[in-house]
Write a structure and sequence with these properties.
Blueprint: H1 23-29, H2 32-39, H3 48-58, H4 60-65, H5 72-81, E1 86-87, H6 88-92, E2 97-98, E3 103-104, H7 106-112, E4 122-123
Parallel strand pairs: 1-4
Antiparallel strand pairs: 2-3
């Protein structure tokens, strides 16, 4: 998302495997045991951090304008409440979240080369963010998909 809350590119679906090559980076920089100890997840190329790194490495024009990275669920919360946020379980699936501390992991963010300022605030599922608007909110516009 850019500073105005607009999506900079179409989403990369959870099952999209374009970023599986980043698993090797995790093996070399963090290791499977340490990654699991922090994030509670096994190394898998389908998790969010890999897609974040893919966008950074393959779409530098998009990355240069990025003010936030939201998972699909987080984007829906933004559309419903006007507030960017995530819950611990969604945050964990990025591979960048320390599940024991309940916070973004500085170690994993550094290993991925991602600034923590890009990640939304995290809280427990069911936390009230803001009231829903009386009328439908227009979601931030997504750019047209490239063909």
């Amino acid at each position: 998302m850019d500073r105005a809350g607009r999506a900079l590119r179409p989403i990369i679906a959870w099952f999209d495997s374009r970023a599986v090559g980043y698993v090797r980076r995790w093996e070399e920089t963090v290791g499977a045991a340490r990654l699991y100890a922090l994030a509670g997840m096994t190394m898998d190329g389908l998790f969010g951090a890999n897609k974040i790194m893919w966008v950074r490495d393959h779409e530098p024009d998009v990355w240069a304008r990025a003010a936030a990275w939201l998972s699909t669920e987080d984007w829906l919360l933004l559309c419903l409440t006007g507030q960017a946020a995530t819950d611990y379980s969604v945050a964990s699936r990025t591979l960048l979240f320390d599940r024991d501390r309940g916070a973004w992991s500085e170690e994993l963010l550094a290993a991925a080369g991602v600034e923590g300022r890009l990640m939304p605030p995290a809280g427990q599922a069911g936390t009230v963010l803001a009231g829903l608007s009386a009328g439908p909110r227009r979601p931030p516009a997504f750019p047209s998909a490239r063909r």
